[in-house]
Amino acid sequence: MTFIELLEQSLPLLIQGLKLTLELAFISLAIAMVLGILASLMGMSKNPILRGINSAFVAIIRGTPLLVQGFFIYFGISGLLNIRISAFLAGVIALSLNAGGYLSEIFRGGIQAVDPGQREAARSLGLSARQTTWRIIIPQAVRICIPSVVNQWCITIKDTSIISVIGLAELTKVGQQIIARTYRSFEVWIMVGVMYFVVIYLLTVLARVVEKKVSLDD
Amino acid sequence: MTSSEPKVMIRGLHKYFGKNEVLKGIDCDIHTGEVVCVIGPSGSGKSTFLRCINCLEEPTAGTIKVDGNVMDAEAKNIDELREDVGMVFQQFNLFPHLSVIENITLAPVLRKRMNEDEAKKVGMELLARVGLADKADARPNSLSGGQKQRVAIARALAMRPGLMLFDEPTSALDPEMVGEVLDVMRQLAEEGMTMVVVTHEMGFARQVSSRVLFIDQGIIAEEGTPDEVFGNPQNPRTKSFLNKVLEA
């Protein structure tokens, strides 16, 4: 089989896998963004219990491998509760929790990186705490966060490959399946790698455009 | 000085940062139309004193009243009370994500003092007054330090405050830009604005202020007219401070 033939044969399958990868990443990241915002708010709360929940959450996510988190949710929890959850759902839960933990730290860092003088200036003009947060702090924090958030998106897109171990036929799993049939490791892993690379590259280009657009320097 | 109710009334003001007592009991009245310059060594508590007036710092003990209203950071009406007290910061603190004119119109519109058009009109007038009408659509980061500080003054004035606080407004500026900011402040003083100015500009304090407070080690160590404080200081600490800064 020539490389071209291999490509022709594999591409439709790989694109199927890529679709699942992107679905998994997109849904997980959407949930993770919301989760991250909520967790970061808890982390900055005056309530010590909420702060404690946030730091425990972040510590667990940071302190354990995603692979273990995925196994725990797919086999551990479903076994304990004696329920069956789909590999896709387990993957979404694991990836959202994982990315949510990291994003909450990114958001908290971004908000705390805004110069305290900004809040003081806004309050001195009579703006309420809420107006100050939404009109002054958040718009600047978002700009500060963009590079780190995009970085986390890239990581999570690639981390979907780890979820292949619980049997989800995403891009990496499809690659393995093709290799099992064709024994063409070298070429297939290149194809798989290129597909991840293109997605991430497009994302970073888009991010750079956005970053430039909202930059505070004239 | 008028005999009416003072604009600002400060009684028994103490402020601790942790165990460090920065203000050790300050009593002070500031009357409408007064320009009070606050001088003193760094770390003496001058800025803390100023920041207590609009409750950016919460006093540990004592009361501060502006127009007879108690300033309390936890009070419901604190935002309203702050609308009447403009503040200019050493580091300008312009909002970098907004244009110059948006910096000025934000608070009047959000606080419903003016509608968008009126706020813009007032904002343009204020910018013209500080000599920056051509910078309305610029971003703060494209301005020089002196220009930033003049915009910051215009931003504070847009709320039509009855009192303006200046926290070392020229200390972060290159020397050649100090004059343009002091000129705006001088003009403001001549128009009768009530001002409290923490400053190291002794020339300005001497010429413009109606009263000088010398704060040292957390208390008002001496106060009087500029002529009294600069010309004939009574407290040895005032003398030694003035010797040091005027020599330099």
Structural class based on helices, strands and sheet pairing of chain B: alpha/beta
Helical content of chain A (DSSP H or I, runs of 4+) = over 70%
* Largest interface pair: A-B, 21 and 29 residues
**Please, what is the average pLDDT of chain A?**
94
Fraction in beta strands of chain A: under 5%
- Return the average pLDDT of chain B rounded to an integer: 94
Oligomeric state of shown chains: heterodimer
Shape of chain A: flat
β-sheet strand percentage of chain B: 15-25%
Describe this structure in words.
The complex is a heterodimer of chains A (218) and B (248). By secondary structure, chain A is mostly helical. Helices cover 83% and strands 0% of the residues of chain A. Chain A starts with a helix and ends in a 5-residue tail after the last helix. By secondary structure, chain B is of the alpha/beta class. Helix content of chain B is 38%, strand content 24%. Chain B contains 9 helices and 10 strands. Chain B is globular, with a radius of gyration of 18 Å. The model of chain B has no long low-confidence stretch (mean pLDDT 94). At the A-B interface, α5 and α6 of A face α2, β6, α3 and α5 of B.
Essential attributes:
heterodimer; A: 218 residues; mainly alpha; 8 helices; B: 248 residues; alpha/beta; four-stranded antiparallel sheet; 10 strands
Give a summary of the structure in a few sentences.
The complex is a heterodimer of chains A (218) and B (248). Chain A has eight helices and no strands.
Present the secondary structure layout.
The complex is a heterodimer of chains A (218) and B (248).
Chain A: H1 3-43, H2 48-63, H3 66-81, H4 87-113, H5 116-124, H6 129-159, H7 171-182, H8 185-213
Helix pairs in contact in A: 1-2, 1-4, 1-7, 1-8, 2-4, 3-4, 4-6, 5-6, 6-8, 7-8
Chain B: E1 8-17, E2 20-30, E3 35-39, H1 46-53, E4 61-66, E5 69-70, H2 78-83, E6 85-88, H3 100-110, H4 116-129, H5 145-157, E7 163-167, H6 175-190, E8 194-198, H7 202-208, E9 211-216, E10 219-224, H8 226-231, H9 236-247
